[in-house]
Specification:
Low-confidence stretches: none
Order of helices and strands: HEHEEE
Shape: globular
Structural class: alpha+beta
Mean pLDDT: 91
Number of strands: 4
Distance between the termini: 35 Å
Helix content: 25-40%
Number of helices: 2
Strand order of the largest sheet: 1-2-3-4
Radius of gyration: 14 Å
Largest sheet: 4 strands, antiparallel
Length: 113
């Protein structure tokens, strides 16, 4: 029962985190005349959690002066030291998708707006 509770807690945290990132991206976009953070690409890529972001998506514009986020949320079971454990991409039409990198009991979390 305790293991199921831990799975549920991590799943709930992932759901909160993907929505938090997505909301911050859209608030940034509103404040910048419809311009998305330039680091977001059309390829699904992990979001950087630190200042060293080689090969990852740097969303530091969201945490600058804690304007949109105080920090990038971290996936509960992340494995990449520099990565947040969450993935992001934009479509050709500018829609943003944020995914939790890990599944829990076969459930994936992905939000597109």
């Amino acid at each position: 029962v305790q293991a199921d509770q831990q799975h549920g807690d991590r799943h709930a945290q992932r759901r909160i985190d993907v929505n938090t990132v997505l909301n911050a991206v859209y608030q940034y976009t509103i404040d910048n005349n419809g311009t998305l953070p330039t680091s977001i690409t059309t390829t699904t890529t992990e979001i950087c959690a630190l200042t060293t972001c080689a090969g990852l998506i740097d969303l530091g514009v969201l945490t600058l002066n804690e304007k949109y986020l105080t920090s990038i949320p971290l996936e509960p079971q992340k494995t990449n030291a520099n990565g947040a454990g969450y993935m992001i991409k934009k479509s050709a039409n500018g829609r943003i998708t944020v995914d939790a990198q890990f599944e829990e009991q076969g459930a994936t979390i992905s939000v597109t707006r």
